[in-house]
Amino acid sequence: MSAIMPGATMPGRMAHLATIASDCYNRSMNGQPPVFIVDVMLGKLARWLRLLGLDALYVRRRKPEELRAVATSPGILVTRDHHLTTGRKYPGPVILIESTNWQQQIPEFLAKSGCRPFVRPFTRCPTCNGLLAEQPATAVEGKVPRFVAARHRRFCRCTVCGQIYWPGSHQRRVREMLRQWGLADTLPRNRT
Ligand SMILES: [Zn+2]
Question: 178 partner at 20 to 30 Å CA-CA among 40, 51, 87, 186?
Fold first, then answer.
């Protein structure tokens, strides 16, 4: 399988990127959305990928054999570690993130992965990566503060960790960031 070689010429790098992007599309065509394995150096990016609705496992391990062990399916490794992109140390495709600024890492990731068509904001739990399921207000009575229950009608609950989410100031900030990244068209309608 391919990896992005940091010292490669531009055509070579582009070929690798094209391979990764086509891998994303192929897996989607098979009904399998891409799975990203985000390494320990990119915790904030992993959280943002989840906010975008992308399947992002965050692993606190560094060695290639440890990364392989946590991959339940052929995952696309997302890393800042150049060593993991050389010598085919990781068996699957690798996306090397070069920016150190998280606000620039998202556009860099989207450009290199070709996964913008799969962005579905607010469909995954940013904490644990579980899928979110809509819940009526009656289902969360007693589980959220009263003023929240009185103000909102729609809630989501993480199907894995049980965390309950609702539109609030945090979501407004996320929406603003997505607009800055040119992802406004992916946003669901603002609902209370
Ligand atoms: Zn969760």
Answer: 40
Write the DSSP assignment of 50-107 as a string of letters.
HHTT-EEEE----SHHHHHHH-SS--EEEES-GGGGSTT-SSS-EEE---SSHHHHHH
CA of 162 to the centre of ligand 1 (A): 6
Give mean pLDDT, residues 118-135: 94
Gap from CA of 87 to ligand 1 centroid (Å): 36
Q: State how far the Cα of 68 lies from the Cα of 160, in Å rounded to an integer.
A: 23
What's the CA-to-centroid distance between 14 and ligand 1, angstroms? 35
Question: What spacing in Å lies between the alpha carbon of 187 and ligand 1's midpoint?
Answer: 20
Specify the range with the lowest mean pLDDT, choosing from 20-24, 56-60, 111-115, 116-120. Answer: 20-24
DSSP H helix total and E strand total for the chain: 6, 7
For domain 10-118, the question of CATH label 3.30.420 is answered with no
81 in Cβ contact with 41 (< 8 Å): yes
Delimit the CATH 3.40.50 region(s) of the chain.
10-118
Name the amino acid, one letter, at 52: L
